[in-house]
């Protein structure tokens, strides 16, 4: 083997952008990462205290992953043989990409889409075709369908991050049924949307639904992801592809306990939907922004060239939102996470003051 190959590979990879995390600011109201801050800290403490009592971290989690899958099976009402788990939904997506796709396969997705997925495709040199969102941040289904004949796999995050757009259920089912290949629907934000396609995995062999505990259950720090698909894919993924112990014991037990509190969590999701509409209505009433409809726990808006000024001014007032810049034909996009009523009021009052 030629000398210097390793250094050459490092130089090649250094040219990639990588997934961009939000800027870290201390002592601010954090509305920049779509975390579920409506779930209070006491709920989390109780969950983790209960999880600690149920585990011994000196031991490998032998059989514990299966316990979580059984709990998910009851929660989702699908057989446990159709459920796989991962260290966050991003790890599941990563393992699917690296094991099933290559330079000769093509992925059809939207523009924009989940940044991590896009960057991993670049890392593995997997070609992607992207259908751009319209000016009002919706996606044309017919335009998407017209490009499927050249694709090996479809990927859609629904609701989409960062736009918040969600296809109608019938439109998405039409897309899945007409495509002759695997379709990954990333449902990280589906609990804040109009529907989930999990139940359709029993009938549609090509449907792969990826989900997470990070959003609805407020366990982003635990890195718990899962997906639902046909039994053959789940068997190969879990038995051959996935790590022997993909999840830590504390995360597994926290996930099991969180599923037992699903009714409480569902109530919180309804509160977030109500607050999301309040943010959309208030931002629109200001007349200063293009504000896009959302089915997620965040709101995207175009500040029309004032995005940097607004972002910086909010930081000075102790509020951090996500600065995204150009998305499609909109050049000054910002995204705010939906928090508690008090958090959202603080954000909206700060925006009002900035516009005076």
Task: Please tell me about this protein's structure.
The chain has about 350 residues and is of the alpha/beta class. The protein has 2 domains: about 110 residues, Aspartate Aminotransferase, domain 1, CATH 3.90.1150.10; about 220 residues, Type I PLP-dependent aspartate aminotransferase-like (Major domain) (Aspartate Aminotransferase, domain 2, 3-Layer(aba) Sandwich). Helices cover about 40% and strands about 15% of the residues. It has 12 helices and 12 strands. Helix 2 crosses helix 9, helix 4 runs parallel beside helix 5 and helix 10 runs parallel beside helix 12. The longest helix is centred in the C-terminal third of the chain and has 25 residues.
Layout of helices and strands, plus pairs?
Elements: H1 5-14, E1 29-31, H2 41-53, H3 64-76, E2 83-86, H4 89-100, E3 107-111, H5 115-123, E4 128-132, H6 141-146, E5 153-157, H7 169-178, E6 183-186, E7 207-212, E8 225-228, H8 231-241, H9 249-260, H10 262-286, E9 290-291, E10 298-302, H11 307-316, E11 319-327, E12 330-337, H12 341-355
Parallel strand pairs: 1-11, 3-4, 3-5, 5-6, 6-7
Antiparallel strand pairs: 2-8, 7-8, 9-10, 10-12, 11-12
């Amino acid at each position: 083997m030629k000398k210097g190959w390793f250094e050459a590979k490092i130089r090649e990879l250094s040219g990639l952008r990588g997934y961009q995390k939000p800027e870290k600011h201390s002592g601010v109201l954090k509305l920049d990462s779509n975390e579920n801050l409506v779930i209070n800290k006491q709920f989390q403490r109780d969950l983790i205290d209960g999880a600690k009592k149920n585990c011994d971290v000196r031991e490998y989690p032998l059989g514990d992953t299966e316990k979580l899958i059984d709990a998910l099976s009851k929660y989702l009402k699908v057989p446990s043989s159709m459920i796989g788990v991962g260290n966050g939904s991003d790890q599941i997506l990563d393992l699917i990409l690296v094991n099933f796709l290559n330079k000769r396969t093509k992925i059809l997705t939207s523009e924009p889409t989940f940044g991590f997925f896009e960057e991993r495709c670049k890392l593995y040199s997997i070609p992607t075709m992207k259908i751009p969102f319209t000016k009002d941040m919706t996606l044309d289904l017919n335009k998407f369908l017209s490009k499927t004949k050249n694709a090996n796999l479809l990927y859609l995050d629904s609701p989409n991050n960062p736009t918040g757009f969600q296809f109608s259920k019938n439109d998405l089912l039409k897309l899945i049924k007409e495509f002759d290949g695997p379709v990954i629907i990333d449902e990280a934000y589906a609990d804040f949307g109009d529907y989930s396609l999990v139940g359709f995995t029993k009938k549609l062999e090509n449907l792969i639904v990826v989900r997470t505990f990070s959003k609805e259950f407020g366990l982003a720090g635990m890195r718990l992801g899962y997906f639902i698909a046909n039994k053959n894919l789940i068997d190969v993924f879990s038995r051959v592809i996935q790590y022997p112990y993909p999840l830590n014991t504390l995360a597994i037990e926290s996930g099991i306990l969180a599923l037992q509190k699903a009714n409480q969590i569902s109530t919180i999701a309804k509160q977030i939907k109500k607050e999301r509409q309040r943010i959309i209505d208030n931002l629109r009433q200001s007349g200063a922004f293009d504000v896009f409809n959302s089915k997620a726990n965040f709101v995207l808006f175009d500040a029309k060239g004032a995005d940097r000024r607004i972002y910086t001014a909010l930081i000075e007032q102790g509020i951090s939102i996500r600065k995204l810049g150009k998305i499609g034909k909109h050049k000054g996009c910002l995204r705010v996470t939906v928090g508690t009523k008090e958090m959202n009021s603080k954000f909206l009052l700060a925006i009002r003051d900035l516009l005076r």
